[in-house]
Amino acid sequence: MSNVKQFTKALDKLNFENMYDGDFLLTWEKTDDEVKAVFLVADALRHLRENNISSKIFKSGLGVSLFRDNSTRTRFSFGSACNLLGLAVQDLDEGKSQIAHGETVRETANMISFMADVIGIRDDMYIGKGNTYMREVVEAVTLGNEAGVLEQKPTLVNLQCDIDHPTQCMADMLHVIHEIGGSDDIDEAIANLKGKKVAMTWAYSPSYGKPLSVPQGVIGLFTRFGMDVTLAHPKGYEVMDEVAAVAKANCEASGAKFTVTNDMAEAFKDADVVYPKSWAPFSAMEKRTNLYAEGDSDGIKALEKVLLAQNAEHKDWECTEELMALTKDGKALYMHCLPADITGVSCDEGEVEASVFDRYRDPLYKEASFKPYIIAAMIFLAKVKDPQKVLKALESKGKDRWIGKE
Amino acid sequence: MSNVKQFTKALDKLNFENMYDGDFLLTWEKTDDEVKAVFLVADALRHLRENNISSKIFKSGLGVSLFRDNSTRTRFSFGSACNLLGLAVQDLDEGKSQIAHGETVRETANMISFMADVIGIRDDMYIGKGNTYMREVVEAVTLGNEAGVLEQKPTLVNLQCDIDHPTQCMADMLHVIHEIGGSDDIDEAIANLKGKKVAMTWAYSPSYGKPLSVPQGVIGLFTRFGMDVTLAHPKGYEVMDEVAAVAKANCEASGAKFTVTNDMAEAFKDADVVYPKSWAPFSAMEKRTNLYAEGDSDGIKALEKVLLAQNAEHKDWECTEELMALTKDGKALYMHCLPADITGVSCDEGEVEASVFDRYRDPLYKEASFKPYIIAAMIFLAKVKDPQKVLKALESKGKDRWIGKE
Amino acid sequence: MSNVKQFTKALDKLNFENMYDGDFLLTWEKTDDEVKAVFLVADALRHLRENNISSKIFKSGLGVSLFRDNSTRTRFSFGSACNLLGLAVQDLDEGKSQIAHGETVRETANMISFMADVIGIRDDMYIGKGNTYMREVVEAVTLGNEAGVLEQKPTLVNLQCDIDHPTQCMADMLHVIHEIGGSDDIDEAIANLKGKKVAMTWAYSPSYGKPLSVPQGVIGLFTRFGMDVTLAHPKGYEVMDEVAAVAKANCEASGAKFTVTNDMAEAFKDADVVYPKSWAPFSAMEKRTNLYAEGDSDGIKALEKVLLAQNAEHKDWECTEELMALTKDGKALYMHCLPADITGVSCDEGEVEASVFDRYRDPLYKEASFKPYIIAAMIFLAKVKDPQKVLKALESKGKDRWIGKE
Description:
The structure is a homotrimer. In chain A, 47% of the residues lie in helices and 11% in strands. The first copy, chain A, has helices at 5-12, 32-50, 73-85, 103-111, 130-146, 166-180, 186-192, 213-222, 241-254, 264-268, 282-294, 297-312, 321-326, 354-359, 361-369, 371-383, 387-396; strands at 62-67, 88-92, 116-123, 155-161, 197-201, 228-232, 258-261, 273-276, 333-334. In chain A, the strands form two sheets. Chain A has a five-stranded parallel β-sheet. Chain A has a four-stranded parallel β-sheet with strand order 2-1-3-4, sandwiched between helices. In chain A, helix 2 packs across helix 16 and helix 3 (73-85) crosses helix 16 (371-383). Chain A is globular. The interface between A and C is large, with 39 and 39 residues.
């Protein structure tokens, strides 16, 4: 695309005015138009950067990040998105301690937000807690803004919670649109996805307790685009009921199929997209959350043993060349949120055979590369009242992000 | 106020030219005009931000922060102030180890200051050390600048020392001016404070060793504004003699009263402002400093026990509804630097009854919200030779801090 | 100098076009013209800053830092350089764990680089690893850029590896040019260095395992300028053969002498510059690297004991007043990368006598102050296609780095 017009024209057709001054917590709280607007703005921001055009909309301001878990990728994606828009990042390091509630959340949320335009939170460890905590923060800063404590209401971006991983899954979906959609026109590209088959499958990992937010996010989002989504996992690795219900409802609306199976090969059969990835059983995560709440460290250790043993019963859930051969023309798009457990590379036995991973390395990195732009787009749409106008204004300022570029 | 003129006109009447290229260590080293200038610039910067006008005076430059103690609030306030003015924050993490002296201070101060325009230090743990350390840093960078090592002399802002907590107490005082002063005109507002009564009182906390810098800062500053200040604490919780002397001298100059009592109710009686907050006895802190210096960890543990027991004798020093009812019309402004020990919320028995805290939550958050602007004003006045001119210039640039705002 | 013209005119005479889009790993991989260009741009950037002219060439973008070792000085120098050019710093904190290889390096390098314009790495702990790791990172991001994963190829700056410490030694050399060269004209100044004698000598330290990158960097760089370089150390403290070979080859090209001796006094005799500094024996570092790789912590402890005992045999290797008196007119320029082990100040017996250090404090700080500008110059030359044009353009924008400066 030679200029931003193609993006702004597509945006003109959408209704996303409710995103202004909003937050981004779960993809299924957003309309199809709103989701599409995020994709378009993400692509537009990437287009600007590729053309050395600055997307700085803030002269000053902070993006506050709060990570309950170690995170290099998401941390850098959030930092990159903030930087792209002109915000400095300030980390709130509360450690991995059990999450604060009530008064403390309310107070801390305000104390860190005096000059915060954005708050990014990753809190995926405890079932029933992460998303709830994010909503408490939103409420606190909304009240703080109304009371004149805060000059602005910071926008909250969910960088992964116990339910959804919207920045990851939106990046994944944008990757699918570009790789499988086969058109620069987003409406055409999405239309082309109709009837395509996606296999979101469990895979064996020698570690345990991986969050459910990725498979849940994928089935909650991908089912909106008319694609037939098959969720495959061994018995006992069920995802949250409420998210499965979202996937079903999406499919009913889009006329697609949502299938659950305990057979990896069945999921791979004729699939256009495969996303084999380990996760922990929902019920086990719920149990672990309670054990942590009770401070029962013996119980946690015992649960860990059980879970590792349970995983080890399913070492055959590996994305092999053999399985890949079952996919559409043997050429399904292999996806992963990274890092993957690669057999013989990062572990003895893992999620994926080394030769499969090798073959898809560039597309996998490309998939990941959409994340900072997705986050930036979520912020942009919450902060810019008239995105089309501002995108055009940015473009008209010229190629000056990096002075001295050849 | 509709524009910055009201602030610049008020600044025109003040003499604060010595603040340029200076530092901010203790409020009582500043003249009344200089203190007032900080309030005016803080309000002006807040006014600009509320109106989406950028206050960036630096295109590049660093604000170096050095915290001897964990600190979320002050860290974010300093970070916010730097960001508002265009400085990036770089943390110097020396850990909580005993403070370096002599050669090391001199060297480190220069090594971190090559592009530092500001250094913010919090160092309140050791009696007789924190403020001294800050002066060593100021001397080192002044010499470094003179020797051509540093292109600029960074401004030091005291973010809390063993003696004073100027950024906190200035924020507290600005809050009082706005809440009690009853006028947009700062001279009128301050005149209206004459004869008002402030109760700075000790309160029970189940933790120990809280710094004295807040009560000392409050009595050292609030006494300058013609307000009658009563300092109340149990016997044994005396503050530093030199600061009590500052408070007395201030009162003599302003014609107000500085009273010390061991009766919390007496302090609350007819008070317009109450600031009930725990602190450690000065002599105990002095003892602890020496024990740390000697590396006597058994002595430190023993002292801890003694101090907790001593605190526990004064659990009745709680800011209750009953005590609040004694204040002027039962409606004194309740203040706290946060976080407070709230009875039944953050601890079993603490500094304040939950219903009192609840009632004042918004004003408490507002009180805290002045801190980043106070810090920014201290920096601004040390870095801008003609503040009125620059404030007007910033305003004339228009509403562009956040492009896309509704 | 009154304007940047003097720098741009000197740059006009040099051929450094290969630096664009490049990296900076070892000084001896750069031509004389390229090294000189770094010095000129460093001086030009310092000149701009001294004159309150902004050198911001990036409106947004990240400088990613990766430190395998604690580092205050280099961290601040890198942060300052990035800030000067408009980049925000994002730290990648991988801890001090053994370095990742292969797939992990490739993946991480891309995941942190979506908006990275620069990557700065310090990795000097393990012989044969640090520099190799940096090259793996360069390869990974080059491939990532070619595959469309990264919009730009970040420039890698070696902030210290197992072989060289180019940012330190370039700063050291620029200091020598200014202190000994005796001319504002860089060609004249360098010509004046011909025949001057440099003593790079080992010195006793009560700690062990200090990296070899400084002495290696110094002999690998200083030998290019026609100066006679004497490397002095006790037997057993030999540096890497390949770097000694570089020094020899440089001397052959420049007509100077490279001498190795085991006599500190011989090195100091008639020296114009002395650089007495402790380092670990290369063979011991190699051994330690293998012990770490084998996870042999007993072996590491045993080696530590041996090394400390070995050091202690050479306590007479101290830079004393007596030794300084042997130097040219007793006035050699004393250099150190800091912090130095100062006898009676930072340790009982160390690298340098306190009175010597005291006398050279200002020049030592000045030496260090070149480092952020050297790093900025390395980045500038890798990122700016036409440095002369951009330097002139920056100057013409006027004195606006710090608005409000007197």
